[in-house]
Amino acid sequence: MVLETKGLGFQYAGGQAFRFPDLQCGPGEQKLVLGQSGKGKTTLLHLIGGLLRPQQGQIMLAGADVTALNDRALDLHRGKHVGIVFQTAHFVNALSVLDNLSLPAFLTGAKYDTTRAMELLDQLNLSSKAHRKPSALSVGEQQRVAIARAVINGPALLLADEPTSALDDHNAEQVIRLLKNYAAETQAGLIIVTHDQRLKSEIHQMVAL
Which of these, 56, 60, 96, 181, has the minimum number of CB atoms within 10 Å of its CB? Predict the structure, then answer.
C-alpha cells in the first residue's frame, strides 16, 4: 500500500474543524476526491503531502508513519516519495523552465538528471521551451511543466490539487491524460482533489467530502 490514512482531523486556528474519511491508495491506483469549496479538499491534500500536520489520526506513506517523523525527516520523505501538482504552479520566475525542474533535487539533496528533465519536457512537447522563463508559457504549458517537476524524482504517490479547474477542455484533457499515464506506467498512486465534474468520467474511484 502506498498510502493509508486513519482518523485524520485538522482545525485551523479559530476556523472550521475537518474530519476526513479514511483513504487507501495502492500502487498504480487512481482516486478522485470530490467536494465543493470549503469542504477541506486542499487541506486533505496538504495533510497527505506532509505540508500540514494532522491534529488527529495517522498517515502511512511509502512504508513510514509520517505523522511520527520530525520536520527534517518529513521533508526528505516527502521529497523522495511524493510529487505535488498545485492548482497554481509555483515557479521561480527568474529561472528557466529547465532550471525549475532541478528544484526538487536541490531541495532533497538528490542528483539532478538533466537528461531525464529534457526527456520529460520532450514527452510533454515542451523541449523547445526548456530555456524560456515560465512566465513566457501559456497556462496549459505551465501546468504541464508543473507535472514534469512533480514526477521528476519518480514519486510513489502523485497528488494533484485542482489541476484542471483553470483550463479549457483541450488542456484539461491533456493534463489528466499525463497524470493518468504517469501513474499507470510507473505504478504510482494518484490522488486528485477537485470540484471539476469533467474528471468523473476519467477516474472512476471517487471519495466525496
Answer: 181
At 97 the pLDDT is 95
> Each residue of 150-169: b (16+ CB within 10 Å) or e?
bbbbebbbbbbbbbbeebee
What average pLDDT does the structure give for the chain?
A: 91
The answer to whether the Cα torsion of 202, 84, 103, 137 is positive or negative is: positive
- Contact by Cβ (8 Å): 165, 87: yes
Q: What average pLDDT does the segment 78-91 reach?
A: 89
* Cα 56 from Cα 10, distance rounded (Å): 7
Q: Where are the extended beta strands (E) located within 39-178?
A: 56-61, 64-65, 82-85, 157-161
Q: What's the rounded Cα separation, in Å, for the pair 123 and 119? A: 6
Mean pLDDT of the 86-105 span:
89
Nearest to 153 by CA among 82, 204, 85: 82
pLDDT (0 to 100) of residue 166: 82
Does residue 4 carry a pLDDT above 80? yes
145: Cα separation from own chain's centroid: 13
Quote the CATH superfamily of domain 3-208: P-loop containing nucleotide triphosphate hydrolases (3.40.50.300)
